[in-house]
Amino acid sequence: MGQKIRRVDYFYFWLDDRPGEGARLLGKLKDVGVNLLSFTAFPGGAGRSQLTLVPENTETFLASVKEAGLQPSGRRLCFLVQGDDHVGAAHEVMRRLADARVNCVATNGCSAPNGTFGMVVFVKPGDLADASKAFGI
Question: Residue 1 burial (CB < 10 Å; 0-12/13-18/19+)?
């Protein structure tokens, strides 16, 4: 498989930082048929949490969240990395940004079955072009 890096759209929601709020939102997305490539949740302070989503299909996501009465953030861009898992796989991705002097503001990664891994990499909007160049896209 090697390694595939592509720019993808992401959106986020602010939720109350209480048990079940993430499950409630993910359930609404499931009910309207939204498939996700990635999601990450983290505390945002003041009793709120941010749930960041990378939908498989942006247009389906936008139509579906409207149907469900949900209000996501505006469309933003990040990078989705998928590839063969091996020692140093994440380092290789991050090193490319470092060599290009691009700061990664957030990332999330995970190994997957059959020796694969995935990562989502977030950079500042002003760094998208340099990061794209560093990733060869």
Answer: exposed
Tokens (6 digits) for 45: 């302070």
Q: Is 3 part of a structural domain of the chain? A: no
The pLDDT of residue 1 is 64
Residue 2 domain-assigned? no
| Distance of alpha carbon 72 from alpha carbon 11, whole angstroms | 6
pLDDT one-digit tens code per residue, 33-53: 999 999 999 999 999 999 999
- Answer whether 34's CB lies under 8 Å from 64's CB: yes
* Nearest residue to 79 (alpha-carbon basis) of 47, 19, 37: 37
Enumerate residues 6+ apart whose C-beta is below 8 A from 124: 103, 105
The Cα 100–Cα 112 span in angstroms is: 28
pTM for the full predicted model: 0.93
Residues 51 and 70 in one domain: yes
